[in-house]
Every structure is written in C-alpha cells, then in structure tokens.
C-alpha cells in the first residue's frame, strides 16, 4: 500500500530509503526505466522506494504565462506512480517560501535530516535550490558529507532521441499522436468533469460532452478518435472528439468536445477520462452548419475504424 505525504515529515519506516526526485510529468518510458533501475536497488539493498514531486510544477510556478503545459494532471500522475511499485510518494506544494530554499539547505535539512536518503535518483539536467543554483554535480560533491549516493542513469533513447516530457509535448503539439503514445507507453488522456455547454452539438445532431482542458498541454487542434472511461465503470465508450477553438462558431476558449457512439445517457458533471487514439484532421472553419455536419459524418466513419 503506497503512503502519500504532502510534506517531508515521513514515518520512521520510510526513512533511509531510495529517493527519486523529479516532475515525472506523463510518467513516460524514460521515467519507467528509472523506476525499474530503482527496483533493482530495492532488491539488492532491501530498501524502500520514495518519490518526491512538486505541485505546481516549478516551471509553471515561475512562469505564470505557461498555461497549457502538463501531460498529466496531479491525480493521473499519482496513479501512474502508484503503479510503479513504490512505497511512498511526497507531493510537496511548490510555493514562494519553498522556492527560496538554498540547495545546501535542501540537502542538509530535507534529504539528510528529514529523509535520511540512502540513494538519490535524478536525471542529468536536475536543478534545485534558490534560483536553480544546485545541480547534479553539487549533489555528488556532498555525498560523503551527508551519507547518500547519487544515481544518475543514462538517458533513455528511442530512435536516437532522448525520451523526455518536452519531446512528447512537441509530438502532441504537431499532431504526432502515435509517436507520443508510444513514448508514454499508453494512450495520452485528459481527465475532467463534463460541463454544460451551449448545446450547439445537440442542435446539429451530434450531442457532445464538454471538458475544460485546464493546464493540459494543447495537442494539435483538430478532430481525434477517442475512448472515454467513466469513473467506477470498467466499460469504455468509443467516440470522436474536437479539441480546439471551434472556429465555425467564433469561439476563443479552448475546449474538448466529445461525441460518443451508441450512447444515450446523461454525463453532465460526471468525471471522465478521454483517451486519444488517433489524429483525424486539423481544425477548420466551415462556411456554414451544413458543411460542418457533412464533414462530421465523414469524420465519424474514420473514427469508428480507429
């Protein structure tokens, strides 16, 4: 059973563990490789595994204009981490006070005194402390003094490219959904609560579930084949989704609209997860409703084959 913490005051049996630090956005293949390596250390040294992640992500905290950035929301991330056979997860609130912690104080007070970390797993580009002053080399310089060992695995490569959250974001933004899904080792998905919209889809014969995408990265605006998973319901529903600004209706706000096949029921205010299966076409402004309706019929045929 994974124990979840919101600060560094952990139980005695979780001290002197293997600690992995990072954003782990998307928990992709590169992250999964890191956790696999940690498992081998767990076995060899008979230690527990703990994860430190931050919310909001530091990059988003420092850059308030960075709105659509996340590959997964905090709930999804914790679920993905939970499935990687770890013992505890610390989700530290990243705020102004914490951001001013110096790198040496983070090592001394948090990693050493509070956690008594034995092994620390970080990526090559890991930075920490006030104004990002600390790096991996600084962590290594302090190993003997604070009795821990830094493990810095080689980056995970696929097609000669380092698998990273930023690479997956760029794939999604360009509409390369299959490539993004491959690096995630699952279907990229957006979670949210179904909102009541302007009922435009209903009026043209294709009722939709509307979801605000909040902080999620904006994948290429357009039409996608999707799977919808409802909370506490194992049966997924196939559908078609439009992600974007709905230019035919002159909308300014990004929205995810999902039309489900062979479904009659009310999903308003229900929590759903939308899995993206295939990119069908980019978003387009139509001359009128009839032209849009004709295109949707063509899109439906494509989506049903996905």
What descriptive keywords fit this protein?
about 300 residues; alpha/beta; Rossmann fold; Elongation Factor Tu (Ef-tu), domain 3; 2 domains; six-stranded parallel sheet; six-stranded antiparallel sheet; 11 helices
What does this structure look like?
The chain is of the alpha/beta class and 306 residues long. The chain has 2 domains: 3-159, Rossmann fold (3-Layer(aba) Sandwich), CATH 3.40.50; 187-305, Riboflavin kinase-like (Elongation Factor Tu (Ef-tu), domain 3, Beta Barrel), CATH 2.40.30. The protein is built from 11 helices and 16 strands. The strands form 4 sheets. The protein has a 6-stranded parallel beta sheet. Strands 11-16-13-14-15-12 form a 6-stranded antiparallel beta sheet. A two-stranded antiparallel ribbon has the order 6-7. The radius of gyration is 22 Å and the shape is elongated.
């Amino acid at each position: 059973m994974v124990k979840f913490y919101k600060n560094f005051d952990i139980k005695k049996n979780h001290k002197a563990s293997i600690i992995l630090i990072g954003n782990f956005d998307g928990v992709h293949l590169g992250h999964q490789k890191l956790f696999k390596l940690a498992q081998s250390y767990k076995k060899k040294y008979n230690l527990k595994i703990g994860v430190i992640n931050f919310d909001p992500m530091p990059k988003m905290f420092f850059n308030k204009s960075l709105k659509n950035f996340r590959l997964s929301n905090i709930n999804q991330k914790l679920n993905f981490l939970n499935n990687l056979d770890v013992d505890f997860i610390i989700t530290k609130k990243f705020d102004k006070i914490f951001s001013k912690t110096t790198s040496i104080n983070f090592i001394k007070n948090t990693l050493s005194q509070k956690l008594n970390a034995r092994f620390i797993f970080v990526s090559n580009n890991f930075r920490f402390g006030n104004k990002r002053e600390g790096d991996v080399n600084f962590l290594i310089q302090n190993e003997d003094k604070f009795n821990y060992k830094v493990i810095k695995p080689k980056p995970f490569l696929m097609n000669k490219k380092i698998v990273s959250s930023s690479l997956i974001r760029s794939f999604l933004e360009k509409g390369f959904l299959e490539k993004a899904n491959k690096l995630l080792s699952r279907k990229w998905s957006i979670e949210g609560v179904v909102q009541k919209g302007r009922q435009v889809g209903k009026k043209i014969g294709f009722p939709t579930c509307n979801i605000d995408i909040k902080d999620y990265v904006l994948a290429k605006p357009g039409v996608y084949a999707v799977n919808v998973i409802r909370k506490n319901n194992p049966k997924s529903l196939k559908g078609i989704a439009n992600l974007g600004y709905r230019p035919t209706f002159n909308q300014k706000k990004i929205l995810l609209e999902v039309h489900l096949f062979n479904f009659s029921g009310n999903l308003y205010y229900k929590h759903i997860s939308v899995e993206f299966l295939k990119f069908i076409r980019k978003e387009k402004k139509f001359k009128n409703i009839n032209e849009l309706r004709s295109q949707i019929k063509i899109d439906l045929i494509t989506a049903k084959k996905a």
